[in-house]
């Protein structure tokens, strides 16, 4: 008798759909809780003062880096609570999971949109050096940005 793979394929398709749904729930939870600590008393006063200044700086410039230094107390608190930042982990990006990585990538995209000259491709290039990111992960980020039709 010849094997018919239809039942096994349908079962596999159903299981993958279940797993993708679980992953989607994780992403929805992250979407609903992203950066909530920025509203805390430990972070909000710093962001109130420095967010307008950051918006007028060029990403990676001396002014940008100085604003980050001024934000250091808030950022230290923020990084300690938010796993989508490499600083959350002792071993940086190598400690992250896929959900952390995706949230980090989308955070870079949204953060870049707050700057007049923001650009996800520049963010990827800058953060590759900053976080000692692998060539492979850099390429995955670039491929994803292109898939999402993010402009250069």
How do the SSEs run, as a string of H and E?
Answer: HHHHHHH
Global outline: elongated
- The whole-number mean of residue pLDDT values reads 95
From the alpha-carbon coordinates, what is the Rg to the nearest angstrom?
Answer: 19 Å
Distance between the termini: 57 Å
The helical percent reads 55-70%
The total count of helices amounts to 7
Task: Describe the fold and architecture.
The chain is mainly alpha-helical and 152 residues long. The chain has two domains: 1-33, no CATH class; 36-147, no CATH class. Helix content is 64%, strand content 0%. The chain has seven helices and no strands. The chain has helices at residues 6-33, 44-55, 62-70, 72-81, 98-112, 120-130, 135-147. The radius of gyration is 19 Å and the shape is elongated. The model has no long low-confidence stretch (mean pLDDT 95).
Provide a compact summary of the structure.
By secondary structure, the chain is mostly helical. 64% of the residues lie in helices and 0% in strands.
List the helices and strands and how they pair.
Blueprint: H1 6-33, H2 44-55, H3 62-70, H4 72-81, H5 98-112, H6 120-130, H7 135-147
List keywords for this structure.
single chain, 152 residues, 2 domains
């Amino acid at each position: 008798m010849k094997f018919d793979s239809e039942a096994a394929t349908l079962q596999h398709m159903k299981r993958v759909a279940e797993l993708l749904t679980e992953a989607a729930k994780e992403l929805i939870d992250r979407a609903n809780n992203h950066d909530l600590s920025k509203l805390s008393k430990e972070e909000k006063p710093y962001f109130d003062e420095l967010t307008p200044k950051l918006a007028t700086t060029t990403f990676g410039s001396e002014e940008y880096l100085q604003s980050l230094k001024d934000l250091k107390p808030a950022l230290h608190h923020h990084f300690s609570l938010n796993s989508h930042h490499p600083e959350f982990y002792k071993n940086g990006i190598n400690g992250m999971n896929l959900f952390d990585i995706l949230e980090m990538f989308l955070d870079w995209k949204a953060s870049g949109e707050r700057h007049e000259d923001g650009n996800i491709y520049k963010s990827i290039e800058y953060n590759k050096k900053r976080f000692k990111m692998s060539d492979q992960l850099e390429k995955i980020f670039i491929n994803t940005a292109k898939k999402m039709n993010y402009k250069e």
